[in-house]
Each structure stands twice: as structure tokens, then as C-alpha cells.
TrEMBL record:
Modified residues (N6-carboxylysine): K155
Residues at which Zn(2+) 2 binds: K155, H188, H211
InterPro entries: Amidohydro_3, Deacetylase_Atu3266-like, Metal-dep_hydrolase_composite, Metal_Hydrolase
Protein name as it appears in the record: Dihydroorotase
Leader sequence segment: none
Amino acid sequence: MELLIRNGRVLDPDDLTREAGEIGIRDGRFVAVDEVDCSVATVIDAGGGYVAPGFIDMHVHVYEDGAVIGIDADRVGVQQGVTTIVDAGSTGSDGLARFRETIIETHDTEVLAFLNIARKGLCDGLSELADPADLMSVEEAQVAFEAEPNLVGLKARMSGSVVRDQDIKPLQHARRVADALDVPIMIHIGNPPPYLPDIFPLLRKGDIVTHAFHGKQHGILDADGEMIAEAKEALARGVLFDIGHGSASFSYETLRQFKGKYDTAFTTSTDIYERNIETPVGSLMTTMTKLLQLDYPLEEVVATVTSRARKALGLYEQGTFEVGTIADVTVFNVVDKKMSLVDSNGEVRETAKVIVPKMTIKSGRVVWNG
Ligand SMILES: [Zn+2]
């Protein structure tokens, strides 16, 4: 089975000089265009749209019947031009086998996951780290990672409402587990305690801070818009920032201030689920559109959901056009359109350009065509 994608503007995050050109696919993987036999290949017309490696959203909630929040994986995946999604801690070790059965194996969208350090995952009350008895042991985590190849790390939500009186202790525990398994931790930050000056020193190279640009008190920026020392030190060690828009965790103003002073690379993700898809999140492309609005160049915005996400998650097959890797492709348009887009703080900004999905190819197969 051979495919040739034609008539698109290739946006290759690994090679920005590529621009014009075609993409060759054979048996679900990328091949050099001159290896494709044009007499037998199926030609896919990209209709002048942008052609990029399949987008990766590294913070979603898709465990529909296994966690208190969730949404259908394909609805926020391939149907929105996203080929790989990472569920961020909806499940702990207790629900993992069922997560594979009912979510990973039943959707066109590739579903990876950060494993909640709490055995039961996101449960009633969303205070999964309030009781130390609920935390996964090193041995339990080892069993989970051996059983489930789609796990990419651990998740620990560091908000007062999640940890109650435990403060930093669940993260200290997660640190021990992550070190024993040599996997990254995705940390959620929000309303303290615990406070960031206590959280950041526990993070190592490769750990990910999601909700990094929230607009709540006690965030990464001080009152003068300067990054706090512990955050600067963490970035210097190789800790990564991720957007994780969500209902309450993305502020235009925070990112605007950050952008003016720091050019640190971050990844873009949605933290999308049933209750925030209508507003304020919309989709991964809506979140990317908000970055365009803040004057980030399109190439960089696309890198945040492809090459940069690939690197952050330690992936090889995804987020690239590299020959031999799985042929996941996102075709999209940037249309001139005025829209009012709201952030999690209620700030509305008008945009002149909007990123919209056009076609999704997963493992060399067109799985969605808008
Ligand atoms: Zn989340």
C-alpha cells in the first residue's frame, strides 16, 4: 500500500527548508518520495493545506468510564487533527488493564498515558493524593510499567485540593518511584500549598510541569513578571514547561509576560475533557491559535506539538517525517478569520488567523477527512 501526499505546504519541524514537496508512505511508514511507485500509489491531495507530522497532545483526559472526568479519545484525537494523545493521570495502577481494553485498543487515535501516582487515579472528589495509603509503591509501579508499553511517565497533581494536608509529601514519594523506574514525572501546578519553591527543587531533567502558564497566584512569575529563582534553576536543569490549557490553567497574560523575557521552549497541550471542550479549550488547534495570537510563528507553534513533544516524551516514531517512522500526518489550514478566543481567566482576545484541521492520517491510513 503506497501513498503520495501532494499539493501541500510541507511543514517539517526537523527541516524548515523543505517547504514545497511531497510525502511518500509505504505500508504505514514514511519513505523517500523517489521510492514511491507513482503508477500504483494512491495520491492524496492536500488541497494547498499545510502538511505536518501528526500532532501530539500530551495532556488530555480520555478515560471515559474509568475516571471522574473524560472524553472520547477520537473526538479530541484524530477528529481534531491529533494523531497521538497522552492521558495525563486519569488512571493509576488499579484501572490500567481496563484503560488498555476500553481506551487504547478501541480508538484510531494513539493513546499513551502518564500513570497517576495514586493507585485509583482521578476519583471522586479529585483528592487522589490526600491519603498516603493510596500511593503506589515502587513494586506496584514496576509491575504497571512492565505490563503497559504505552506508559510514558508518572503524573502527580500538586494542588492544595489534591494533596490536602500532605503538602509536598506525595511528590517526594513520586520522586522515589520515578528514580527507581527511571521515568519522568509530569507535575500539575495550581493553587498552593504546596508552593513552587518547594516543588521545583524536586524536579529533574526531563520532568514536565503542566499548567506552567496558569494565571493563579503563586505561579512561575513574581509580581514584577520575573521568573522565580526555583523555576529558572529547574529550566536550567532540563525541566520542561507544558501549557495544559484546561478549564483554569492557561492565561494569555502569563504567557505574554514570559514571552517578552524568556524564549524557553515549551510544549502545547489542552488538558481537554467533556466539561471544557466547548469553552475555554476547544481543541489542540484552538490552543495553538492562541499562541499565534501572541505572535509566536506558525513553525514554532507546530514544533510545540511535534518535534518538541516527541523529545519531551522520549518518543521515536511520532512527531517527525523521518524515513522509516510511522506515517502519522496532520493536514491543516490557517484561515483568515476573526474569532474571540477566551483563556482560563476570562480574558478574550480577537484573532485574525485560525488553525483548523483538514485531514488526519494515522499509520498511513486516512482516518478523518474534514
Ligand atoms: Zn489534567
